[in-house]
Amino acid sequence: MKNALKMNSEAEKENGFLRKQVTALQQQISSLQEQIKWFQKQVFGKKSERIVNGLDSCTLLLPGFESLENSKEEQIPQDVAPHKRKKPVRHGKDSITIPDDLPVEQVVLDIPEKDKVCKITGKRLVKIGEEITRKLAHKPGSFFVKEYIRPKYALSSKEEDGVKTADLPESFIPKCRADESVLAEIITEKFANHMPLYRIAESFSREGIGISRQLLSQWLIRAGNILEPLYQVMTKHILESGNVFADETPVNILNKGKCSQGYICVLVGGKGKDPPYRVYHFAESRKANDVLHLIKDYKKVLHSDKYGAYERLANQKQITWCPCWSHVRRKFVEAECGDSAFRKYILRKIRYLFLLERIAWSRSSNERLRIRKVYEEPIIDELIQSVRARLVEGKLLPKSNFTKALNYFYGLQTHLKNYLSDPYARMDNNVAERALRPLAVGRKNWLFFGSANGGRAAVVLLSLVQTCRGLGINPREYLEDIFKRFMSHPYNKLEELLPDQWRKRPL
Question: What is the reported pLDDT for 23?
Answer without folding.
Answer: 75
